[in-house]
Amino acid sequence: MKTADLLRFSFKTVISHPTRSLLIMLAMALGVAAVIILTALGDGARRYVVNEFSAIGTNLVIVLPGRSETAGSFPGAVMGQTPRDLTLEDARWVGRLPQVHRYAPLNVGVAELSAAGKLREVTLMGTTADIFPIRHMRLAQGRFLSSSSENSAQMVLGSRIAEEFFPDGNALGQRVRLGDRRFMVTGIMVEQGESMGYNSDELVIIPVQHAQTLLNTTSLFRLLVEVRQQHEIEDAREAIRQTLIRRHNGEDDVTVIAHDAVLATFERILRALTLGVAGIAVISLAVAGMLVMNVMLVSVSQRTAEIGLLKAIGTPAAVIRYIFLAEAIWLSLTGACIGFILGQTGSWLLRLAYPLLPAWPPLWANFAGIAVAVLAGVLAGLLPAMRAARLDPVAALSKR
After folding, report:
1. Residue 197: helix, strand or coil by DSSP?
2. Which of 143, 169, 328, 385 has the most CB atoms in a 10 Å sphere around its CB?
3. Which long-range contacts (CB under 8 A, 24 or more apart) does 8-12 make?
4. Which of 387, 300, 365 is nearest to 38 (CA)?
5. Distance from C-alpha of 104 to C-alpha of 189, rounded to nearest angstrom
6. Beta strand 181-189 with 154-157: parallel, antiparallel or unpaired?
7. Domain boundaries, the chain
8. For 53-69, what is the mean pLDDT?
9. In angstroms, rounded to a whole number, what is the distance separating the alpha carbons of residues 356 and 49?
10. In which region does residue 136 sit, left (phi positive, over 0), alpha (psi from -120 to 50) or beta (all else)?
């Protein structure tokens, strides 16, 4: 029997049992769709987190006051001392290190903003002009602090704050009150939306010295440091740590985090999670393969007489085997193709429901889903095909 005849014969057999074939294909389709949708969800979450972290900045080292590791007792505690604050002077010393390109001290708090007869509570960020290139933030209008006016009472408004207080778009140059202090609006940020837990459109940015006065503190919330070259991050991290230990009388009381290391850790965790959910989905394909095997075994029992007739007219055992294998391939391949379409549709619906989540299925998942489904079908069809090929023609015909 020619290959084309064999495929045609097996295809006619498949469509002659529509209910049975439909159920097998549905099982295969659901397995493939699950692989594609779950990997799209996992990989989308990974890309979302990576994009959010990348938006913070690149070549970034973050310095936090206090220790995040357990390192024995704090010697100053017996003298009634507490760990030192991270101060603006510390930041200036860090900024002098050769590995540091620029740095931005941060203070964050909440205060009441009043202007144009309106009043509301806003999140304020005290920092310097270098925060914009470090955090990839952009100004739609105006400017922020220059090196010659670090202490001037300037303010940059988030786009939504500017729209709420000055709907006519005439915010630049206006005087506003933040807490008990007056500032002049010198810039408006580009609309950027929410990132890493806060909405920059509802943020006001003022000089860090004014923020510390408003918040009644001398300690920084964070110090963001941009390193000149990516390969210098580890050297810079250690240099910053040693500099601050010397300034704090030998106390290692700050935490220095390499942004790229945190990002790489998140990426590894979420990639492993994606592979894990893909593995769970593949199990459903294995179950579908067992269903194919079960149905094909029943089919061999039901078609004993047909197999005996084929053998009686001289059909070789190998051809009988190929017929049953071809049926299994037809069922699994058709189910895989339907599952691929269902998976892509499900991923599209996910992106539609959650526009911020880039739920695109990875290319490897598309191919792996179809390949595993076909492989499961072929393996599941082997045993029934071999059993059919071994049937004795006389014994098979006698069962009619």
Report:
1. coil
2. 328
3. 9/323, 9/326, 10/323, 10/324, 10/326, 10/327, 10/330, 11/326, 11/330
4. 365
5. 17
6. parallel
7. 3-53+266-398, 83-252
8. 75
9. 11
10. left
